[in-house]
TrEMBL record:
Keywords: ATP-binding, NAD, Nucleotide-binding, Nucleotidyltransferase, Pyridine nucleotide biosynthesis, Transferase. Belongs to the NadD family. Residues 5-186 form the Cytidyltransferase-like domain. One of its GO terms (biological process) is NAD+ biosynthetic process. This is Probable nicotinate-nucleotide adenylyltransferase. It catalyses: nicotinate beta-D-ribonucleotide + ATP + H(+) = deamido-NAD(+) + diphosphate. Residues 180-189 have a biased composition (Basic and acidic residues). InterPro entries: Cyt_trans-like (IPR004821), NadD/NMNAT (IPR005248), Rossmann-like_a/b/a_fold (IPR014729). It comes from Tistrella mobilis (strain KA081020-065).
Length: 203
């Protein structure tokens, strides 16, 4: 079984998140994508940023992630982990038969070198990066992209990513989604409405 781990604050969740999760599901042919609603992004906590309560963020994500292969979870709060490296190691130990892939937007790759143990994380599981307006070039030139340049797979080989030994990563270009939680919180975009159920993706 192959599972994409999609970590985020989801404060609030929006259609950009659904776009990322469904692209990952389809391009990689994953069995499931698990949304890991973070109890607190360590970098945001350090900067003193306060998020909405976890239960509210989970409820918002569930109202959007209406697809049989998308699961919105509170795994990190249940495990008591905050750093992604700890979460991934705990999940791999508990579910040794699952092939995990980490999923993030291009802004995440641009910042990855600020995460605790980011080099070790790259050695734990493959990474899928989905391009995002304004971040593609920064991501491709970021310290993590340079450090792991020789482990980058071409987009055409994205489907092989879940079964490729880490470190391995792909930056997927293509249709971009401009939505962001910051804009929604600042009132520049309306809050997302609950979406109707979706049909399963073509396999
Ligand atoms: N429109 C988007 N396109 C690509 N990736 C996205 C998009 N929106 C969010 N992501 C990715 O989803 C993950 C979770 O993002 P997060 O919950 O922080 O939302 P956000 O819109 O980036 O929020 P904020 O504006 O508060 O930083 C991150 O890896 C982020 O890069
Ligand atoms: O492990 C870290 O040091 C780390 C630092 C920053 C962010 N993360 C994770 O990155 C994911 C995206 O966070 P966010 O707030 O940008 O949506 C989420 O799962 C965070 O826990 C992890």
């Amino acid at each position: 079984m192959t599972v994409g781990l999609y970590g985020g604050s989801f404060d609030p969740a929006h259609e950009g998140h659904v776009h990322v999760a469904l692209r990952a599901l389809r391009r990689l042919g994953l069995d499931e994508v698990w949304w890991l609603v973070s109890p607190g992004n360590p970098l945001k906590l350090k900067a003193g940023r306060v998020s909405a309560p976890l239960a509210d963020r989970v409820a918002g994500a569930r109202s959007l992630a209406r697809h049989p292969r998308l699961r919105v979870t509170t795994i990190e709060s249940r495990l008591g982990t905050r750093f992604t490296l700890d979460t991934v190691r705990a999940l791999k130990a508990r579910r040794p038969h699952i092939r995990f892939v980490w999923i993030m937007g291009a802004d995440g790759l641009a910042e990855l070198h600020r995460w605790r143990g980011w080099r070790e994380l790259m050695a734990e599981l493959p990474l899928l990066v989905i391009d995002r307006p304004g971040y593609g070039a920064r991501a491709a030139a970021a310290p993590a992209a340079r450090r792991f340049a020789r482990h980058r797979l071409p987009e055409a080989r994205a489907r092989a990513l879940p079964r490729t030994a880490p470190p391995a990563w792909v930056l997927l270009h293509g249709r971009l989604d401009p939505r962001s939680a910051t804009e929604i919180r600042e009132g520049r975009r309306p809050r997302p409405a609950a979406a109707p159920p979706r049909r399963p993706p073509p396999r």
